[in-house]
């Protein structure tokens, strides 16, 4: 059976056979999304082929966890986990990123609502079945910056340099104050958040793209929101949201700010490598345009004194994204196998 035939059969079983369908912009994965219309009703089809490395089970499980205490994850209307199909509640298309672009005066209020959602989420312990990566696991992901981004810029790196970078990041993470892990949704940013003004409290912010959630540090999703690879968050808004989270959660301010910088450095190093790989290996040049913003975020993170050794190492190892180097990555789009 073709994928199209399997899709049509799933929709017939779900009572949505023959519905009008319009493709939606996807993410950086191999999943596809469609908005279905049946009269006045709409729903979202997630098409996540298992033979392309997808598994819808984490999405279903985490959505259930989030909705169990009143957050706005899409309800699962029908599912075929074996075939990789989900029919989901349609939360609409009022993305925070679009609303802020249309009405910049609302930016602080919208970001405050997203920050308040994280405060509410973090009042609940992470489920025991979530992945719980430790400092070494998190640090290993930064090797992409040295194995994809640096070579893409023309700077080949050695195995010893990769090992050193991973070790420095792992040590910085291990040195952070101990805290109880919370749910880290991983891709918590303005293009994955839906404004739902008819709902109340933290449910006003709808959640998308959380299937890769893990048990992690409180700061992870907040820095994902505030150090967005796709849009500039003004420094006063960033500072205000960190203050807001600290005040509402009651966490230690100095410890949280340290954690935010260290976690953000790990995250932005990983993203540099991910974006270079998406361009060079998967032929997606649009991600090259985002690299300078990620680089700028990383430089801000590395200014923390606790990251001085890592900052010095990276200054000698990672080239800055000059126009010529970015063009070099673009020129290599889709030409590089996995190293």
Automatic annotation (TrEMBL):
<dbReference type="InterPro" id="IPR002575">
    <property type="entry name" value="Aminoglycoside_PTrfase"/>
</dbReference>
<feature type="domain" description="Aminoglycoside phosphotransferase">
    <location>
        <begin position="21"/>
        <end position="246"/>
    </location>
</feature>
<dbReference type="Pfam" id="PF01636">
    <property type="entry name" value="APH"/>
</dbReference>
<protein>
    <recommendedName>
        <fullName>Aminoglycoside phosphotransferase domain-containing protein</fullName>
    </recommendedName>
</protein>
<dbReference type="InterPro" id="IPR011009">
    <property type="entry name" value="Kinase-like_dom_sf"/>
</dbReference>
């Amino acid at each position: 059976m073709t994928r199209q035939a399997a899709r049509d059969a799933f929709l017939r079983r779900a009572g949505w056979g023959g519905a009008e369908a319009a493709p939606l912009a996807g993410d950086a994965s191999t999943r596809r999304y469609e908005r279905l219309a049946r009269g006045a009703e709409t729903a979202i089809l997630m098409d996540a082929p298992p033979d392309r490395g997808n598994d819808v089970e984490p999405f279903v499980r985490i959505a259930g966890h989030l909705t169990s205490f009143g957050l706005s994850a899409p309800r699962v209307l029908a599912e075929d986990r074996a075939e990789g199909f989900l029919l989901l509640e349609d939360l609409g298309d009022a993305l925070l990123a679009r609303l802020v672009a249309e009405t910049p005066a609302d930016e602080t209020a919208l970001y405050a609502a997203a920050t308040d959602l994280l405060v509410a989420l973090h009042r609940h312990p992470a489920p025991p079945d979530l992945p719980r990566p430790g400092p070494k696991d998190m640090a290993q992901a930064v090797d992409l910056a040295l194995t994809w981004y640096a070579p893409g810029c023309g700077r080949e790196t050695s195995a010893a340099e990769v090992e050193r970078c991973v070790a420095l990041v792992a040590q910085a993470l291990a040195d952070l104050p101990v805290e109880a892990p919370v749910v880290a949704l991983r891709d918590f940013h303005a293009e994955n958040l839906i404004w739902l003004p008819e709902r109340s409290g933290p449910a006003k912010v709808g959640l998308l793209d959380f299937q890769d959630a893990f048990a992690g540090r409180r700061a992870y999703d907040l820095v994902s929101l505030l150090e967005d690879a796709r849009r500039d968050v003004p420094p006063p808004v960033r500072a205000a949201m960190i203050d807001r989270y600290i005040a509402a959660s009651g966490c230690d301010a100095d410890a949280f700010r340290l954690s935010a910088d260290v976690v953000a450095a790990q995250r932005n190093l990983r993203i540099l490598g991910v974006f270079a790989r998406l361009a060079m290996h998967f032929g997606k040049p649009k991600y090259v345009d985002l690299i300078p913003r990620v680089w700028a975020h990383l430089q801000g993170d590395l200014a923390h004194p606790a990251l001085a050794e890592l900052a010095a190492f990276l200054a000698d190892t990672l080239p800055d994204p000059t126009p010529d180097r970015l063009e070099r990555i673009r020129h290599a789009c889709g030409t590089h196998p996995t190293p």
